User: Which sequence fits this backbone?
């Protein structure tokens, strides 16, 4: 059976102008995601939309390892974007564009159960740095206390941690949830300060703008042998986007901050 998760991740975040979102979503769902998942080392992928934090649009690619981005096949498609990609990739029309590549640091290996698991319905993502002098203590605390405590909470599928090999900040915490409300539950909040060590370590964490963010899955492709099939979520793409908008309003999320667009014509 083909693995669905490995030790690498490619994460692409962006905000898109409202008047270009429809065509952007068509490009991603009808062409781009399938193009990437046919490449060697790309195990699975899905699209998500922020209900808290941001940037709003997120594509998650599960990689066998980060070497998947060094293959001739990947370099070839990056260097030869399609006409649609040249017009609607996030590097062309997006703002707040982020393309980060990560390698797994916790847990140390991928178990068969994790390797065979699907893309989660919801994610909570923390992008952060800590000062060098506390780095070792921070990683020990996160791996042995913070994530294991949160993994006891109903609705948490698992927590993984990654280190950036491309992009910043250094660390990514990747919680997989059964629904986007998990981190608002009393059980989650009870774990937040349960360990005394947390009070010493957490003040040193420096989150990136829009972090932590909560995301709901809107679209994915399922691989059955060599066949890739489409699956929309939440009663179709329109339903997923409506749900995300409602959750953003309920959370009083301020929406998309605009910044200078990244250049380039290729796409992740």
Assistant:
């Amino acid at each position: 059976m083909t693995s669905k998760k490995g030790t690498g991740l490619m994460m692409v975040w962006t905000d898109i102008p409202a008047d270009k979102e429809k065509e952007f979503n068509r490009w991603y769902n009808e062409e781009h995601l399938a193009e990437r998942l046919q490449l060697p080392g790309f195990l699975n992928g899905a699209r998500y939309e922020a209900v808290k934090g941001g940037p709003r649009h997120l594509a998650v690619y599960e990689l066998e390892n980060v070497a998947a981005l060094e293959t001739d096949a990947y370099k070839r498609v990056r260097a030869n974007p399609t006409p649609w990609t040249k017009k609607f990739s996030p590097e062309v029309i997006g703002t707040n564009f982020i393309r980060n590549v990560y390698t797994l640091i916790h847990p140390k290996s991928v178990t068969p159960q994790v390797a065979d698991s699907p893309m989660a319905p919801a994610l909570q993502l923390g992008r952060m740095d800590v000062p060098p002098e506390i780095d070792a203590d921070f990683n020990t605390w996160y791996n042995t206390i913070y994530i294991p405590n949160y993994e006891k909470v109903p609705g948490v599928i698992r927590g993984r941690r990654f280190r950036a090999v491309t992009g910043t900040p250094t660390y990514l915490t990747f919680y997989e949830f059964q629904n986007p409300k998990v981190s608002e539950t009393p059980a989650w909040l009870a774990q937040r300060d349960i360990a005394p060590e947390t009070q010493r370590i957490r003040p040193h964490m420096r989150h990136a703008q829009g972090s932590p963010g909560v995301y709901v899955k809107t679209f994915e492709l399922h691989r059955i042998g060599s066949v890739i099939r489409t699956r929309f979520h939440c009663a179709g793409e329109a339903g997923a986007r409506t749900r995300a908008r409602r959750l953003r309003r309920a959370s009083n999320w301020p929406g998309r901050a605009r910044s200078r667009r990244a250049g380039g014509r290729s796409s992740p």
